[in-house]
Amino acid sequence: MSVVIETKQLTSVRAGRTLFSSLSLQLCAGEILHVEGPNGAGKSTLLRIIAGLLSPQEGQVLLFGQPQYEDPELWQRNTLFIGHKPAVKAELTALENLHYQSQFDGAEDVDAWHLLETVGLLGLEDLPAQQLSAGQQRRIALARLWYSTAPLWILDEPFTALDSRGIKLLHERFQHHIDQGGALLLTSHQPLTWSGERLQKIRIEPHDEALGYE
Ligand SMILES: Nc1ncnc2c1ncn2[C@@H]1O[C@H](COP(=O)(O)OP(=O)(O)OP(=O)(O)O)[C@@H](O)[C@H]1O
C-alpha cells in the first residue's frame, strides 16, 4: 500500500513542556491510525501539526512524499481536517451552514438537502445552528465527510457528542473511505470497532517520550 502521510522525527514543545519528541509514523492508503493518550498528552497538537496548522519544533511531515508547505495546493486538495470544536456558523441555519461550508471547500454539485438528510438533520434545516444541540452541531461539521474527495482525513475527536446512531453512521462512512483507498488519522477517547491490520494505534504519554505502535 502506498504511503499517504509520513512524519519524521517530530518534536513538539508547548508552554515549555515537551509533548513528544522524535515521533515518526507512516499511514498508508486504506489504513486508520488512532492516536491515543490521556487529556493534555498532545494528540490534538500532533493532528494540527500534520494538518499544517502548527509548526513542530523539529521534524518534518510528508504528504505523498512531498514536504509540507512545498505545495500548498496539493495539501489543500488531498487533506481534510476537522477539529474537535464543530466549526459551524452559529447564526446560520444548518442548511446555510452546509451551503457555506461546501462552497468554502470548493465542492461542486453538493445537494445540501440530501446531505442534511444523510446526517440526520432533516426537519431542523431552518433553525440557527446556535439553537441546535451539541450532537446536531457536530453532525453539521461532519457532513463534509460525505462530499470530501480528499484521500487523507484528519479528525480530532469526531465522535464527541454523537449518539449511538451518529457513531454508527460515522463508522460506516469511515469504512467506505478506507475501502476506497483513503486514509484516516483520528483521535478518540472512545474505542473504535475496527480490528486487524487496517487499524494502527499510536499512544502519546505525557511527561516522558514513550511512544509506540500497538
Ligand atoms: N494554544 C496553546 N498554547 C500553549 N499550549 C497549548 C495550547 N493548546 C494546547 N496547549 C497545551 O498543549 C498540551 C497538549 O494539548 P492537546 O490539546 O494537544 O492535548 P490532547 O492530547 O489533545 O488532549 P485532550 O485529550 O484533552 O483533547 C496541553 O498541556 C495544553 O495545555
Automatic annotation (TrEMBL):
<dbReference type="InterPro" id="IPR027417">
    <property type="entry name" value="P-loop_NTPase"/>
</dbReference>
<keyword id="KW-1278">Translocase</keyword>
<dbReference type="GO" id="GO:0005524">
    <property type="term" value="F:ATP binding"/>
</dbReference>
<dbReference type="InterPro" id="IPR003593">
    <property type="entry name" value="AAA+_ATPase"/>
</dbReference>
<dbReference type="InterPro" id="IPR003439">
    <property type="entry name" value="ABC_transporter-like_ATP-bd"/>
</dbReference>
<dbReference type="InterPro" id="IPR005895">
    <property type="entry name" value="ABC_transptr_haem_export_CcmA"/>
</dbReference>
<dbReference type="InterPro" id="IPR017871">
    <property type="entry name" value="ABC_transporter-like_CS"/>
</dbReference>
<dbReference type="GO" id="GO:0016887">
    <property type="term" value="F:ATP hydrolysis activity"/>
</dbReference>
<keyword id="KW-0201">Cytochrome c-type biogenesis</keyword>
<protein>
    <submittedName>
        <fullName>Cytochrome c biogenesis heme-transporting ATPase CcmA</fullName>
    </submittedName>
</protein>
<dbReference type="Pfam" id="PF00005">
    <property type="entry name" value="ABC_tran"/>
</dbReference>
<keyword id="KW-0472">Membrane</keyword>
<keyword id="KW-0547">Nucleotide-binding</keyword>
<feature type="domain" description="ABC transporter">
    <location>
        <begin position="5"/>
        <end position="214"/>
    </location>
</feature>
<dbReference type="GO" id="GO:0022857">
    <property type="term" value="F:transmembrane transporter activity"/>
</dbReference>
<keyword id="KW-0067">ATP-binding</keyword>
<keyword id="KW-0813">Transport</keyword>
<dbReference type="GO" id="GO:0017004">
    <property type="term" value="P:cytochrome complex assembly"/>
</dbReference>
